[in-house]
Amino acid sequence: MKLFKRIFRRKRIYVELSESIREHLDEKIDDLMGEGMSRDEATRTARREFGNVTLIEERSREVWQWPKIESIWTDAKLAIRQLSKAPTFAIAAIVIMGLGIGASTAVFSIVNSVLLQPFSFRDPGQLVVWRETIQEERRHPLLPDNYLHYQNLVAHSSTVTDAALIQNASFAVTVGKDHPQMLNGLSVSPSFFSVLGITPLLGRAFLPEEAQKGRNESIVITWSAWKRLFNSDPKVIGRTLKIKGEQRIVVGVLPNDFDFPIMNEMPTGESQGKTAPYEIFQTFVAQGEDLTSDDGDFDTLVVARLKPGVTAQKATSELDSLQKAYSSSHHLPFHLGAVVEPFLWEVTGNVSKALWLLLAAVGGLLLIACVNLASLQLARSVSHDRDNALRAALGAGGLRLFQATLMESLVLSAIGCVAGIFLATGGIRLFRAVAPGNLPRIDNIQLNWTVLLFATGISLFAALVSGSLPALRSLRTDPHKAIQSASTRMSSTKRATTGRRLLVTFEIACTVVLLMVAGLVARSFSHILKQSRAFNADHVIIAEVNLLATKYNEGKDSGSSARSAFIERSLDMLRTHPFIESVSITSTMPLTGDSNVHSMYRPDHPLPESEVPNTNVRIISPGYFGTMNTQFTSGKDFGGNERDNPNDAIISQSAAAAAFPDLQSLGRELKINGNVYRVVGIVSDARILDLKEDTPVVYLPFWHDPPDNLFFLVRSPLPVDTIASTLQHDIWNVDPAAAIPVVKSFNTQLTESIATERLQILVLSAFGAAALILAVLGVYGVMAYSVSLRTPEFGIRLALGSSKLELTRLVLWEASHPVAIGLILGIVAALGAARAIRSLLFETRPIDPEAIAVSIGLLLLATFLAALIPAYRASRTDPMRILRQE
Prior knowledge:
It is a single chain. This protein has 26 helices and 21 strands. The chain is an alpha+beta fold. The strands form 3 sheets. Strands 13, 14, 15, 16, 17, 18 and 19 form a 7-stranded mixed sheet that branches. Strands 2-3-8-5-7-6 form a 6-stranded mixed β-barrel. Strand 6 and strand 7 form a beta hairpin. Helix 2 crosses helix 3 (39-50), helix 5 crosses helix 13 (398-434) and helix 16 packs across helix 24 (804-836). It starts with a helix and ends with a helix. Residues 270-274 and 485-492 have low confidence and may be disordered.
């Protein structure tokens, strides 16, 4: 109650205190008058004995005050009044701080949400993902897991409490009489949810026996699938869902906050076209080669939970030893190993370096903004010298002067922080709009308390960086000199100008780093776009079709025949349209990285396992190369005779060079995945997997093994919407149960495949441009202020015979000093930064002459123009006016 009274009734308390002191003084006067003194004499005597009434009031008020807080509040009000008298400076400073803090906050919120926030699983720090390694495998150092090896490691590991297999799966779900819709999901071991520490909201998780063939009818669905497919029916447990034409029983519904990230079996795999969240989970059933072969499919990932206190490095050491012992005891022709990585690293590894680069870049931009504001405040501090001198003369201590001067920076940063948070909100929305769809945890990017604390912290940092120099300068104020003539003020302004030039030097150095890094990334991106691809994506539409009904997956040859019949009928129907120039199919979405990787053996020339080259296998239809505009270098395309002889193969130039070095490839045989193929054609290296590299590819006719997940490629001059309706109509005429989850242009797919690189160049270019603008403002501010101070000198020079050109050269020469030093320091720092981002560059050296030349040239041109304006003003000085003033 007393504290409440102190805060909210302070004015009334002060009035009562003053009245009480006045009453005591009046009583003293009355007593003295009663002793025979006159009123004037009594008043003088009472005041002399009582003391300074005002001082007594102030000291008495301190009982109800917090002196430190009161002084801070007083300085804050003074700073606000001073800023209100200089609106141009205040607005410029707030804009600079708002941009720097807003950009930093937005990028930190992205890094925090994607890289730093733990997953909502039990003890997420104990979750790891392990992959296998094969010493003889050079192209793919990290591989998915083999089922037999997984069983061996789980059985013998002492560092792992439990582990689960996961494998990407697609589910064709039919609701009512609609065409099937595709939902993403996973095939998982029954232990999957216990490893994560997740308990279903409704129902139960999988039972161990449900991982056996014939007993795997159970599914677990997410909250979103429950809400969309079952209208949040609380009695959903036991209901069925039609998947692939068969009924599946819902046994569990996961909590609303469950969000398992998109993961790829291949570490280099991309997720274009598969960015939808996982919504359905089924049990993984090991069968066929999974149960018998050590060199069969490596096509699953393992999520494991380590024992408390065990690190990923220790687990790697143990599992790697187990793998080596297994290779030796089973006399395998290759040497196995294992690598264990934290779960978060596995999810974010492909984007972490790029995001840390963006955070470093925005940190540099914030430093430049702080330096710019410090430069403005140094100039402004000159006009405050006289005020500080008067305060010092009246008894203000050094700490109080420092606090009062720094308070202006704190006020500006506080306002800039509020503006920056609003800008960060818009920046996050913009980032989510332009970010690649496969960016992990993109939906989690938001402002939270951690981000707000970060914004507050960098605001305080910005205030200290930008305000420390002007505040320290206030401590050196000499009251006697500052109150004297303007000449001493002139020497003071010269010291301030020197400080501002040093700040500009630092600003130029930071800008050089940002510009050169942005230039290198832009150069790398240009190389990606301009390289020869050996295919033409213009006027090509891609349609994904999933054949997941039971008839397409029956044993023996019936399922294969059904898939072949569907492909042939669909192609024949689409070819009847005059506006479709060509149409074909492929087994894999183009530009999605490595998949279906196999070793290429030569029956006529056996090699050690370590020397056997690898290739990506693609299943295609005749006419595929015509649709893609990929040229043959020798041999022929597939024809109708492939139906009777499906073991013909077409290989890329890099595959031919890897399998048959210095030999003719046509007519020779290759053994892939246990089957022998005869090479009938060689095509140019089309970068259909990744625009950044020529990867060996072997193309097989679809009659050999028709895929159940295929992609139609249609070349037509018509727009995507028109072709999409035609595609859907014809395909559903062949089979209404076929799912068509994706229809888009090839150019859209190409753009999505380089979305990460495009985002890097957009953000870095924006940061570089902002840094350049701030550097230009810094140079202009220093030179403009210097010219304004030296106007009398320039007038006298002109009166004594100097030409306007000489004055212009003089100003430009002075501007060149901080710019030149900043360039040298910046180039040295930029070369170190370029080496750090070498892995992000494509066919671009860290020391790239063109990128360096363009960056430096752009900065020199901009700073020259910034200094030219003050130089021009100096040359226009009127000497007669200056002489009259002097």
